[in-house]
Amino acid sequence: MSTPDPLMSAIDALTGSTDPAVCVQCGRPREESPSADFCSENCQAVWHATRTGTASVADGGATPSADVPEAAPERPLSWLGPPPPGEESGASVLDAVREFVARYNAFPSEHCAPMLALWYAHTHAADHFYVTPRLILDSAEPGSGKTRVLEVAQFLVRAPEMTISATTAALFRMVSDGPVTILFDEVDAIFNPKNGGNNEDLRALLNAGYKRSATIARCVGDARAMKVERFPVYAPAALAGIAGHMPATITTRAITVHMKRRRADEEVAEFWEEDVEHEARPLRDRLATWMANTGERVGNARPTMPPTVRDRAAEIWRPLIAIADHAGDHWPATARAACEYFVTNAATQPDSIGIRLLDDLRTLYTQRDTDRMTTADILTNLHNLDEAPWAELHGKPLDARALGKLVGKYGVRSANIRQSNGSVVKGYRRDGDGGLADAWSRYLPAAATSATAATPQISAVADTTDVADAGATSS
Fold first, then answer.
1. Which one has a higher pLDDT value, 113 or 387?
2. Would you tell me the crossing angle of helices 331-347 and 90-102 to the nearest 10 degrees?
3. Beta bridge partners of 231
């Protein structure tokens, strides 16, 4: 008969568990964990911090504590990795955060949990960065896990302010009293015009608060003692809501996760808020401690971005890439892979109806191998495009006036075009002043700007010289 292991008996007494298949810290199944005692590195670190003398002490250890043993057990448990003797590595902290986040959500991509771990880390050092990227969680339908992401985030970010319908004035005060991390749920109800939402003050706050130097001026006081006060509005913000209602001025400053409903075969851990809060507290402390020691260094970093990530996208991702580079191990590569994924995914989303029109016009001119088309010919072909909105735009087909208005904001103007029968009609040229090519080069991906012959012209144009206006007006 085997002699009972005194260490395991002590563990069973502490955890109330006698089942060797469960984690000695949280009681969950260990499943594929290589450790015989822990299901994850986070549980290992929590057990180690609370029972082996590395827990934080309010008085720095000046007086004895009955709750914290004076020494570690003689024989250690079977760790997933060596417990940190002193300052913990950034990679191990981020690994633990990523694993913890992934436990409660079925994300649409493997890049989501690492990105969130980096975003949560940046909130603890946001003051050292010039920008704080917005985090957007949207979905086509409710019940897709957006709120759950925020519920877990509130236990990991710095100074969380979880809100649903806070007024703009209240947010002004919260942020100006700072530091704070805004976690705003159901934000689509505020920005959705159908619900009466058109809150320009809130939009301005979220836009301006993206950069550290930003303030918003407001008049305060009564009529006799009115004065202008500049409110600092810089603060990290995560916004969750139904897709399609977020202003473009916010989405272009954000990393967007398009959440989806969980499939029947996708399993996540049960969310008990008090248990999550208890388990997350030491993890947040580890994250805050690491960022406190490294915040200034990562804030001054100039990380190398992936070759395809430039301009605003590079500005958004700079804090997260800098943190990943400092963490080391696999994180520099992991962060850049996530960066390319989210930037590419954002580029596939239609920016506006105007961008969609420019893209369809470029396809049309390319297929016809022409440098000019009449307005009537353009409209006929646009109306016939499958899965395009032009045959029923706002309840009616796109007409010449609407076409001119949409492309006009990109500097494109109609021109007189002489046809083979000698008549002069309105149309649009690819090249020259007011032509489409300049707009294509500025607002569409550069790889597809060159025209290639595909199909012959249906309505030939006689000459390529400009003609007099003949009294016609631009459409």
1. 113
2. 50
3. 216
Q: Which residue has the tokens 């700079």?
A: 318
Distance of CA 54 to the CA centre of its chain: 35
Q: Which residue has the tokens 């949280």?
A: 26
d(CA 329, CA 327): 7
Q: Tell me the C-alpha to C-alpha distance, in Å, between residue 103 and each of 259, 271, 332, 337, 419.
A: 15, 9, 23, 21, 66
What is the residue-wise DSSP string for 321-342?
HHHHHHH-TTHHHHHHHHHHHH
Residue 308 near residue 340, CB atoms below 8 Å: yes
Distances (CA, A) of 171 to 5, 179, 196, 396: 56, 12, 20, 41
- Torsion region of 238: left, alpha or beta (phi above 0 gives left; psi -120 to 50 gives alpha): beta
Residues 20-38, mean pLDDT to the nearest whole number: 78
CA atoms of 304 and 299, how far apart (whole Å): 14
The residue that leads in pLDDT, 55 or 401, is 401
The tokens describing 467, both together, are 């003609």
Compute the C-alpha angle 137/139/145, nearest 5°: 70
Element (H, E) at 425: strand 424-429
Give the mean model confidence (pLDDT) for residues 28-33. 78
CA 370, CA 400: separation in Å to the nearest integer?
A: 20
Residue type, 438: D
207: left (phi over 0), alpha (psi -120 to 50) or beta: alpha
Is the per-residue pLDDT at 76 higher than 70?
A: no
Q: Identify whether the C-beta of residue 197 lies closer than 8 Å to the C-beta of residue 191.
A: yes
What is residue 454's DSSP assignment?
-
Q: How far is CA 258 from CA 13, 109, 150, 268, 271, in A?
A: 45, 9, 14, 18, 21
**What does the alpha-carbon distance between residue 21 and residue 27 come to, in Å, rounded to a whole number?**
9
